Amino acid sequence: MTHLMRCLIAVALLMSGLAAPVTVSLLATAPPAMAQSQRSSSEIDYDAWDRVASRADEAIEAGRASTNALETLRSDLADWRQRFLDEQDTNRNAIQTVTRQLEALGPPPEEGESEVAEIASARKLLNDRMARLREPVRLAELAHTRADGLIQGIDAIIRERQRDEIMQFGPSPLNPVHWPEGLAALGSTFAALRSEADAAWRNPIQRDETRKDIPVILVLSAIGLVLVGRGRKWTHALTRKILGEDPGAARWIVGFIVSMGSLFLPFFGVYFLIEALSSSGFVGLRGGRILDVFGPLVFAFLLARWLASRVFPAKEARTLPLNLSQQSRRKGRFYGMLLGGLAAGSFFLQQVGEIAQWSRPASVVILYPLMVLCCLLVFRIANLLREHVKADAEDDGEETYRSRMTGILAFLMTALAIIVPVLGALGYFRLAQALLYPSLGSIELLAMLLVLQRVVVEVYVLITKNRAGAAESLIPILVGVVLVVLSLPIFALLWGARVADLTELYSRAAEGFFIGETRISPTIFLTFAFIFVLGYFATRLLQGALKNTILPKTRIDTGGRHAILSGVGYVGIFLAAVIAITSAGIDLTALGYVAGALSVGIGFGLQNVVSNFVSGIILLVERPISEGDWIEVGGIHGNVKDISVRSTIIQTFDRSDVIVPNADLVSGRVTNYTRGNTVGRLIVPVGVAYGTDTEMVDRILQEIAEAHPLVLLNPPPFVVFRGFGADSLDFEIRAILRDVNYILTVHSEMNHQIAHRFAEAGIEIPFAQRDIWIRNAEVLNGGTREDGVAAQATKPSSPNVPTAPRQKDEPPDMDGDADGGGGAGDGR
Question: Are 296 and 233 in contact (CB under 8 A)?
């Protein structure tokens, strides 16, 4: 019994995932060193972490550290937190293995019960090993929680300082008392720069160095002046030559790339001029810092001018970014260029003020006029956007989504142009700057996204060779959405977000969330998506190989091929999903709650969907109908066009598509006229006049049926004398056709033969005739009652019987006239 128990436990441990056969006795007698061999030693110095955390606690409690010091401390804490997060994955595989082993042993005995000693020993050993494996994980989780709390405390202090600085009330630029101070600040800054240049010129060593560098200075200056003065004109001339009158997608893209020369060539020219000025030696320390700021701001101005020329182009071959007239586009280019120059100049003066240490009243007085001019230009550009919205509404007849968003943007720009000068005049100059400069950067970024979207459309046209509807195609729209998502961090930085805030968001996303004991993170999601997409494309490639190479060489019919392809597709996608989930490290058992909730939803709300899905699987497996079959379901005749897992499309004979749920095809009555073979029966009814030789009619109809090439002679066709009808002697031709799909054609051809042969034989095909008895015929003739005595004598009438036609049961004579008197019609 003991040996049998040991074998059972060993088998259970093997099924739970052990790498090698290990019996409980060996596991129980293993030395401690072997039991600890799989424990991963932590490489984290927790003593050093305690010192960093203590310093952070003191800084947060005191709240006196500078913002730069807090940022540095926060960066250190973020590094520690990431190390703790990585440490939480320590021993994950070993923990999963021990967990499966404990599950194989079964649940522990309840209180008062006992279990086999060897099982209890194995359970204790596994629980001890689980505790040792989880120890570094729990330490890392505890330290991670502390680091996260410290980072949140530092972020709260920094955000509070930023808020207080922005909302700080200061001097008003409209107060004349501060105007002399602003002018004095400008004069002192200019005098300081001039004194630096004079001091350098008075230095004989510096003059000698400058004389030696005169050739280099002249070359750099000449190159800079040429690029600044002629670079933009050269670029425009080359761009017009490339584009021509009606450029294709490739020429447009090349022209777009060349047009960027108007941005980079002048910038390089300014760079050469800055280098020439720096090489002269006349620029001191303060002037050098100002030149370092000047270069990037010049690039910002050139970028604004280039974007204005793309958003408000002078000429566009096909479509315009905005629906504006040529005069309005000219204004837009001018406003955009001027706004970029004023914004760059305003930011440049702000940096100069920080370098020269201007007082706050002086900075406000100097920068406020530029702020007002920027707001005025923003207001003018908003008017152009409203003009675009109005023109779009007149052209399309209704407001589109893009026009609506443009209108909202115009409203926000108008509000900005009004609010910012008011706040600055009231003394909230920092708040006005915090609204204006990020807004200008956001407008420039939106213009860049608009230009890039046009580039995406042209690249799509170049690849697909399809320009019609390219702007509304799915792929360019998706790429545009991706561009917007990628630009969100830039928008956040423009509006005052710190890089640390973005890294914090990324860290939060990288940590993911937990479903049960499974952590779902972007890395896991991307791994799942990548592997699933690979499996999906592999499934489609396999389906393509089966459809085009293997299945056509078999004798399987069209419906069977479709069933095989559909089955391969479903199985392949299912396997791709399972492999992707397991490769991403997602525990499927953790999704049990989701599956349970989903099953409840299916049971209540998705009954019809599930029923149709199961019915579709049955149709594809059993194949009672196949593509191309002629069927009748619910009184609808047609050919099966497509069978999917939810519904089947039937194309009727008038070429309309009818979508039938699969549940109706499985549970309802379906007639399949062409299942297995195309042989079917044709019935042609024929009526002849009374008095006709019935045997002759039988013989003629038999000859007609046997002579048709689509009528099978085994079994042979035959003619049935059905009976005596109200107006004719009724016959039927009953024949089996080789292809029932041509039943209407054969029916029509037989009718033509019947009419021809009956005419030759003098056989009449009758039509229905009726006798009409007229009461009060004198009313129709305009006479009196006495004039209608003959009519009354012919057919007595009762005042209680209404006037109505009466059907005559006798068959008509050969001349087609009805028996009886009193006015008659043939009733055709």
Answer: no
Residue 170 to residues 163, 177, 210, 435, Cα–Cα distance (Å) = 15, 14, 46, 16
3-class DSSP state for residue 711?
Answer: strand
Can you tell me the distance from the alpha carbon of 452 to that of 420, in angstroms, rounded to the nearest whole number?
A: 30
The DSSP secondary structure of 659-707, one letter per residue, reads EEEHHHHHHS-EEESSSS---EEEEEEEEE-TTS-HHHHHHHHHHHHHH
- pLDDT for position 203: 81
Cα separation, 304 vs 333, whole angstroms: 10
Higher pLDDT, 101 or 318: 101
pTM above 0.70, yes or no: no
Region class of 691: left (phi > 0), else alpha (psi between -120 and 50), else beta: left
> H or E stretch including 643?
strand 636-643
Dihedral sign for Cα atoms in the order 769, 771, 774, 780: positive
- The H-or-E segment that residue 761 falls in is helix 743-761
CA dist., res. 357 & res. 351, Å (int): 9
* Residue 235, number of CB atoms within 10 A of its CB: 20
Q: Alpha-carbon distance 822 to 790, whole Å?
A: 10
Tell me, what's the pLDDT at 735?
93
Q: Look up residue 268 and give its two tokens.
A: 């390089």
Cβ contact 289:355 at 8 Å? yes
**Structure-block tokens of residue 539:** 């499934």
316 backbone dihedrals φ, ψ, rounded to 5°: -130, 135
Taking only the tens place, the pLDDT of each residue in 721-731 is 999 988 889 99
Q: Which of 615, 629, 630, 616 is nearest to 566 (CA)?
A: 616
Number of helices and strands in the chain (H, E): 28, 10
Q: Which amino acid is at 326?
A: Q
Cα distance between the two ends of the chain: 102
- From residue 573, give the alpha-carbon distance in Å to each of 531, 538, 620: 11, 9, 17
Question: In angstroms, rounded to a whole number, what is the distance separating the alpha carbons of residues 500 and 505?
Answer: 9
Residue 800 has, within 13 A of its CA and on its CB side, a CA count of 0
